[in-house]
Amino acid sequence: MTPGHGSTVDGVLRRSARRTPARVAVEYGERSWTYEELDDAVSRAARVLLDQGLERGDRVGAYGHNSDAYLIAFLACARAGLVHVPVNQNLTGEDLAYIVGQSGTTLVLADPDLAGRLPEGVRTVPLRDADESLLARLATAAPYDGPEPRSEDLVQLLYTSGTTALPKGAMMTHRALVHEYLSAITACDLSAGDRPVHSLPLYHSAQMHVFLLPYLAVGATNIILDAPDGDRLFDLIEQGRADSLFAPPTVWIGLSNRPDFATRDLGGLRKAYYGASIMPVPVLERLRERLPKLAFYNCFGQSEIGPLATVLAPDEHKGRMDSCGRTVLFVDARVVDENGKDVPDGTPGEIVYKSPQLCEGYWDKPEETEAAFRDGWFHSGDLAVRDAHGYFTIVDRVKDVINSGGVLVASRQVEDALYTHDAVAEVAVIGLPDERWIEAVTAVVVPRGEVTEAELLDHVREKLAHFKAPKRVLFVDELPRNASGKILKRELRDRFAD
């Protein structure tokens, strides 16, 4: 075995523990952990896992809610040389069984209220809230003192969100994630003095790998919440305990729609990060108007790259509010046509990546891996435009572009036009089969107050060419989305296809 070079996920915590052992690393509920205590807990949890008969390289599922135990379990897998498989806690039935089975998971660490959903015969260990839980066993476990993992070892299978097909397990190495952590620290201006709150699901790569682990790397004090509860978030900000927050656009929209958003003292919030899906420009403008001193960062990427690829910094928003920024430290990107050739700046094409942050491919899916990694570049499936200054703007997912009467319509542009109407709380624009138009541009709207289809159609036609305006407007109570905030347009297309 080659010597350890420290480029490992668990090494990130170990270094912080040696540098600032007494500083509080994590707070969750009534519990808090200093960096030294957290590092010790991770070593003991690694021993607990290996005592279950696991061997290096075995896959260990994580099926739980946000908690300190969830974080400790991930880092313990990393330290023990195991492969962590985070599972969306909202999955049930066939979707849950698919990931557990396809990954070849040997053992699942599960919260007790979720364990009953797992397929019959799957070995489980409770994460917390039980006498035999991982957290409870730390007091009697000896610290792990075995060999360090290698930087090239797999540490996690990050399953894609599956908005268009069955999810695929992106094979992430220690080295890839450590590169991504440094990219996140530099591009997002993360520092030990920040007071971040982490409220999005930790199974999702953005909250875990763009924020929580990089913040542990710099030595910040991190608050973990069960969920992005507006009351709790606003209280923490007013109390001066939180000044940094990441949330997808759907959560920012929900916070900005709260009646007390205009009256609470939110001036202590210094850094606001958004990503995971496209932020409507009108929503961002409303947020900036209400909190003019708040620094907004647009973070863009996907699971396969760890997941951060580009960032639009606060001082870069002016004049390019719809941009996702420039590539981060360890990412190179191009915009290409269907033949893989570079397109001129200002021309839409697929954005492709080359980076040490990239996954090694998809777990047990050689054909999908070969299709995604071509000519030395990873093909993202995102339609983008690059300008002469290196800024990228995501036009749409390639599969979400609508072919209406032979003319391609980007759904994002139509959505932004609809968001400028006061009665539109949320909207998703999709293409539905149509004999005349091939695909009819269709807006699925969550209304705020009274509004008619005709009013919204007239509103869009005042802003866009008529061929881009929706042929129909469908009203719903809510839009389907996954736990990371991405709207599931595939579900909408299936629901309204008839």
From TrEMBL:
Q: Give the highest taxon in the source lineage.
A: Bacteria
Query: What keywords sit in the KW lines?
Result: Ligase
Keyword NAD included in the entry's annotation:
no
Q: Name one GO molecular function term.
A: acid-thiol ligase activity
Q: Locate the AMP-dependent synthetase/ligase domain: which residues?
A: 13-363
Stored SUPFAM superfamilies: Acetyl-CoA synthetase-like
Q: Name one Pfam family in it.
A: AMP-binding_C
Which segments constitute the AMP-binding enzyme C-terminal domain? 413-486
Its family remark reads:
Belongs to the ATP-dependent AMP-binding enzyme family.
Name assigned to this protein: Acyl-CoA synthetase
Q: In which organism is this protein found?
A: Streptomyces canus
Q: What is the lineage of its organism?
A: Bacteria, Bacillati, Actinomycetota, Actinomycetes, Kitasatosporales
